[in-house]
Design a protein that fits this description.
Layout lengths: L1 H22 L5 E3 L12 E3 L3 H14 L3 E9 L2 E9 L5 E11 L2 E10 L8 H16 L2
Antiparallel strand pairs: 1-6, 2-6, 3-4, 4-5, 5-6
Length: about 140
């Protein structure tokens, strides 16, 4: 009986590994509008100005768990916010959020890149979805 349980556990681990190997694209760097594996991740447009959107990014990052703003730069073309998202397993992902004024709209694009390993198991896409969805609720 113990041998059967061990065999079933090994089979479950192998099947789990195969599922993980095929469930996500083999990438560790995801950017809105540029990563074919995630066509749903698009650049977001807002009616608010650059300063309001930057304030919104800072506000939502402070509310979300495991997010930290590590830098903000502003120039004539817009602003860029550097953040770090840390997973439950203490893996860090560098996130860059670019805020640019284009005509009457403010465009927000973002990139998330893993610091460790060639494969992120979808974490970078989840990072971008989390911050952009929260920003959608914060900025109108």
């Amino acid at each position: 009986m113990k041998d059967l349980v061990k065999q079933l556990l090994v089979l479950a681990a192998v099947l789990g590994g195969l599922w993980c190997a095929t469930a996500w694209p083999r990438i560790n760097d995801v950017e809105t509008g540029k990563t074919p594996g995630y066509p749903d991740l698009a650049v977001h447009d807002y009616g608010a100005g650059v300063d309001s959107v930057v304030k919104g990014v800072r506000t939502v990052a402070s509310r979300l768990s495991r997010w930290e703003i590590v830098g903000v730069g502003k120039g004539s073309a817009g602003a860029e916010i550097q953040a770090v998202h840390t997973t439950l397993f203490q893996l860090k992902h560098d996130v860059t959020i670019r805020v640019r004024r284009e005509g009457s709209r403010t465009r927000v694009s973002a990139r998330s890149k893993s610091r460790f390993g060639p494969w992120d198991f979808g974490q970078n896409a989840r990072n971008l979805r989390e911050i952009l969805e929260a920003l959608d609720h914060e900025v109108f």
